[in-house]
């Protein structure tokens, strides 16, 4: 594992951070996945962000968090996750607005009774600040989230895939339940219009949770 991250294109701090992330994930998934699988997922997750992130110091943390999500997805696919809770994946183009608001409401309302993920077909560097503010008005902090791509195992592990504006670029796998939410893209919109999109997303998330048998207040 050390040789993977001791490369000339990484700073010493990045190398150390990735090695620390690898150790954390190895302990977390001990008995589920071997070192080689964890190393591969962490490395490919790092590559996903390296080409577009401007703050290089955050790359190892983003890679660790994304690798953790992907490994959890793989565990579900391979029958190594016995939790049985439904997984819902929210997809849009940039993973900076609609899908992040949907995930924020879903996580807040579902708690530990379901798992929510999000992704984008063309993820950008950061979440739309106006979207963050609109969600903060509802008491939901989404600043810990970050735009990310979708991967095959994440889509395959989901029970429901909700698409929002990504059209033919959204992945389609047989046997999945797909919902297409026709919602305005909040990019470049004033906060008043974003609030309208936000409120419609909340309504749809509550309806979806009801269909999944998860009551909300």
Automatic annotation (TrEMBL):
<dbReference type="Pfam" id="PF01451">
    <property type="entry name" value="LMWPc"/>
</dbReference>
<feature type="domain" description="Phosphotyrosine protein phosphatase I">
    <location>
        <begin position="86"/>
        <end position="211"/>
    </location>
</feature>
<keyword id="KW-0059">Arsenical resistance</keyword>
<dbReference type="GO" id="GO:0046685">
    <property type="term" value="P:response to arsenic-containing substance"/>
</dbReference>
<dbReference type="InterPro" id="IPR048716">
    <property type="entry name" value="Phosphatase-like_N"/>
</dbReference>
<dbReference type="Pfam" id="PF21234">
    <property type="entry name" value="Phosphatase-like_N"/>
</dbReference>
<dbReference type="InterPro" id="IPR023485">
    <property type="entry name" value="Ptyr_pPase"/>
</dbReference>
<protein>
    <submittedName>
        <fullName>Phosphotyrosine protein phosphatase</fullName>
    </submittedName>
</protein>
<dbReference type="InterPro" id="IPR036196">
    <property type="entry name" value="Ptyr_pPase_sf"/>
</dbReference>
């Amino acid at each position: 594992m050390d040789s993977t991250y001791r490369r000339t294109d990484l700073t010493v701090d990045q190398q150390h951070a990735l090695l620390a992330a690898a150790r954390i994930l190895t302990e977390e998934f001990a008995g589920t996945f071997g070192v080689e699988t964890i190393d591969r997922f962490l490395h490919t997750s790092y590559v996903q962000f390296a080409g577009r992130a401007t703050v290089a110091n955050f790359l190892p943390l983003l890679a660790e968090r994304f690798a953790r999500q992907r490994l959890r997805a793989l565990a579900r696919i391979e029958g190594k996750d016995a939790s049985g809770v439904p997984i819902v994946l929210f997809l849009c183009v940039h993973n900076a607005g609609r899908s992040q608001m949907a995930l924020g409401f879903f996580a807040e309302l579902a708690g530990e009774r379901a798992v929510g993920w999000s992704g984008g077909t063309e993820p950008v560097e950061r979440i739309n600040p106006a979207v963050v503010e609109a969600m903060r008005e509802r008491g939901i902090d989404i600043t810990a989230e970050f735009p990310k791509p979708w991967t095959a195992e994440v889509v395959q592990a989901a029970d429901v895939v909700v698409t929002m504006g990504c059209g033919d670029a959204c992945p389609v796998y047989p046997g999945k339940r797909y919902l297409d939410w026709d919602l305005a893209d909040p990019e470049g919109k004033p906060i008043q219009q974003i609030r309208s999109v936000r409120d419609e997303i909340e309504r749809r998330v509550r309806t979806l949770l009801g269909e999944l048998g998860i009551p909300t207040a």
